[in-house]
Amino acid sequence: MGADKASYRNRGGPIxxxxxxxxxxxxxxxxxxxxxxxxxxxxxxxxxxxxxxGSNVTIQDYAFFQLTMPEPKVFIGNNTVIGxxxxxxxxNRISIGNDVLIGSDVQIIDHGHGMRxxxxxxxxxxxxxxxxxxxxxxxxxxxxxLMNVKIGNGAVIGANSVVLTDIPEYAIAVGSxxxxxxxxx
Length: 185
Known about the structure:
Layout: H1 3-10, H2 13-27, E1 30-31, E2 36-37, E3 42-45, E4 50-53, E5 58-59, E6 64-67, E7 73-76, E8 81-82, E9 87-90, E10 93-96, E11 101-102, E12 107-109, E13 111-113, E14 126-128, E15 130-133, E16 138-139, E17 144-145, E18 149-151, E19 156-157, E20 162-163, E21 171-174, E22 179-183
Parallel strand pairs: 1-4, 2-5, 3-6, 4-7, 5-8, 6-9, 7-10, 8-11, 9-12, 10-15, 11-16, 12-17, 15-18, 16-19, 17-20, 19-21
Antiparallel strand pairs: 13-14, 21-22
């Protein structure tokens, strides 16, 4: 099979290209070449939201993006895969680097909720932060990345881990809460 036919097949054919083209036009502020957005991926964005992706990005089935007030921005680098059933929720800023692999059922959230005792939780305003994920990062299935966290270049986050604090470059972190157990060699 020639390179052109293989490339055509990898992008999913004409229906997948139409789906991607529509979603690219409808939801993305900017997108590089070879974007693939699966049919069941869902986007809920306020009008002024910023959703930018680089080239060779794939957004798998049932991924859910929610960009809501006050100033949501999501930046995704080149050669990055957003896994099946991922939930990415931004009120401020989430940045995901180049060459990032995100397994299925991962949640990335840049905000939390107020929990003061003097007011019912449902009446409290959100606490808004950020999430920054470096380049060449692998996030295992089911992981949760919570607000005000930086994950360094080359880090690995184990499946079902809950990341509450910064993870250094090339560290392997696992558990709930995630703790560094060793570094990549």
